[in-house]
Amino acid sequence: MSGANSRMSFDSLMPWISRIFFLFVVAVLVGLMPDLAGIDPTQTILRARSGQQQLMTAEALQAVRDELQLDRSTGERLWDWLASAMQGDLGTSWVDGTSVAEGIRATASTSLLLMTSAIVLTVLFTTVSFYYTVWNWKRGRLSMQHNSLSSVLVALPEYVIASILILVFAIWLEWLPPYGWQGWQDLWLPSIALAIPATGLLSRLLNDSLRRVLNEPWVVTWLSANISYFQITRFAFKRAISNLIPQVAMIMIGLTGGAVAVELIFSIPGIGRMILGAAKSQDLPILQGGLLVLLVFSILISSTSILIQKLMLGQMLSSGKLISSHSSFSFTKSKAKLYSAIGIFAFLIIFTVWAMLRDPYTTQFGRLIAPSLEAPLGSDAIGRDLFARVGAGMLTTLKGGIMATFLSLVVGVMLGFCTRYSQGLIEITKGVPYIMQVF
């Protein structure tokens, strides 16, 4: 009996051990970033401090090394940073000497407001989708087919949506400012840019689960007993959302990653923009401190979601009676949708093949010319064919997407067999902004 209790205690502690371990791994990798890249951060730091005003002399570079103690080994610097971080001291910036903790505190409130507004919009948009599904169910038109709109919204990255929103609402219509953080009007575009992909994913998951719940036998029994649609909808929602809480947490964590690109595009002084600037200038104290805050925030969201799910379901979590959250696949029965999809796919193939036959690198037109028969999409700032460049980029993106999808499938299957041990890795990889992973 004591052995079983010990085993249960170990299993409950394992996710936290995993989280702490991978937090440490990320901190070490960030500290090793200059060594892994084979670069000397001294030049970048000096350039960030003085721009082009100071020459990169050996004396100036050595003064920076002496000031920041960069001549010490990486292991010594990492140990000092970890020891200070355990005491709540995240150090000072290598560029301007300000306190890292104060900088994070000043920018975190901005990012938190942006994330909160994005979550509110996501909930509002998803609620509309939810009631649309319920409305179809009441009229006997509930279909197990997926809404293609949600798939499109999920596929669009935040920075693409942000660019489109700026083009439409800031440049064409002039309703909202294209950048800045001065008033409530600056909150709309970045919040919508973050909320749209999150809405697509959340509404897809919720509606799939809700359709399966509304097709269960108990719904027919309750209808026969003249129980109101409101009561049935309320219990159906609780049953549908109960097993989606961890996925909802992952969506919220993903908002922190998408916020980095959005903050950069809209010039929002948030923690994501601060971290990105620190990565460019090799300001390791700010980079380590900012990522640490984001990852701890991600772990808190995930842990809270697990606690909420346990409070909602109790023993049902281990009963095997939950609704599966996987999406069933089937081709549409609508001929209009099928022919439209085939037509779009054929157009993309013809577009790509035609563009690949053109030269995307040679300057052959005047700069920034308008679209014409010779240059269907015009030319760029140095006269290259934009049509050819888009086609070449499509092929590169397609190859990268296929490889990333395959690797995600393989790694996901492997981690799925050891969820307790990989819990920290899953939360941290989701919490690290994707735009940071290229540095």
Structural features:
439 residues, mainly alpha, MetI-like fold, 3 domains, 17 helices
Overview of this protein structure:
The protein is mostly helical and about 450 residues long. It has three domains: about 15-85, no CATH class; about 100-320, Orthogonal Bundle (MetI-like fold), CATH 1.10.3720.10; about 335-439, no CATH class. The protein is built from 17 helices and no strands. It has helices at about 1-30, 35, 40-50, 60-70, 75-85, 100-140, 150-155, 160-170, 190-215, 215-225, 230-240, 245-265, 270-280, 285-315, 335-355, 385-415, 420-430. Helix 9 (about 190-215) packs antiparallel against helix 12. The chain is globular and about 85 Å long. The protein starts with a helix and ends in an 8-residue tail after the last helix. The relative contact order is 0.11. The mean pLDDT is about 80. This is Dipeptide transport system permease protein dppC. InterPro entries: MetI-like. It is a multi-pass membrane protein. Keywords: Cell membrane, Membrane, Transmembrane, Transmembrane helix, Transport. One of its GO terms (biological process) is transmembrane transport.
